[in-house]
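Pasting as-is:
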Amino acid sequence: MRRGAEPPCGLRTLLLQVRELGLGYESDEAVLFKYCSGACPWVRSNHDLTLTNLLQRGALPPPPPGESWLSTPCCRPTHHEDLAFLDDTHHWHKVEKLSAAGCSCVG
């Protein structure tokens, strides 16, 4: 990998206390939060090429301000996993689909 280049899209982990998740749970328990991050290559599809051609010919209206007809792929979770933990009052909580379990370039 080149110096300064962003690593490819993949699963990353961060050890956090439950209270740091910002979900309103009071717990000092540490959990492994998994998320997706990294670069995604942009390969122009036939759809992208056709959109560009139609835009250049004026066959499509211009996109609304601040939007674009063309987009680049981004690194996103493909599926999630639940996270269970004990709060400060010793009650179990299960938060569904909180942590990423797999990543891919989407878009």
